[in-house]
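[Automated response] Your request has been received and processed.

Submitted sequence:
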Amino acid sequence: MILIGIGNGVHKDGTPSKVSQFIVSEMVSDAKSWQKAGREVILIFSGGYKVNGHTEAQAMFQYARRTAPQLVPNLFKEAKSYRTHNNAVEALKVAGLVSWAKRAGTNVIIYDHPAHLSRTLLCFERANRLFFRNQFLITGRAIPEVYDSEIPGQPYWASRESFSRREKKINLIYRFLLFRPWARIGFFLLSKIWPSERQ
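Generated structure:
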């Protein structure tokens, strides 16, 4: 089982946002349950948005290490991706390496904020089909809805209203560009608009 957490901001001191903390907590809880059931579990934290040199992935990784030290051998991070389409491609690359090593299966659960999850699943499903030959079985899990007004440079996280308004606009762009018939071109265009490792 491969669990992928999408970064949702990082504070100036390198601690994960409230949203990212919820994501890590849900992933850790599920990982422990899968392990009790005898399944190998891998946790991947994805996100290259950076504040004061700290990326989302690093912040989530460190938070998981502190809160669940027994899972350290199962933790991986992907800190290249800057936007959701980058998350999909880069995180699935890591997942592919893990599954090829036969440490986990191809079942992938994506953890994200409920208002962002539909865009995330769209990107992961398209990336899986176009670049990974449908290697993975992808599902999504929404964490409890929470907002964090203290994320630097991301004022839209302050409230449900501001975040929802922004998400609706960006979702329209993603749904158009990643429409199935021309999704490969859409990924190319998105990589030019919002490149990986932008910062």
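Summary generated for your ticket: The first strand starts at residue 2 and ends at 6. The chain has one domain: 2-193.
If you did not submit this request, please reply to this message.
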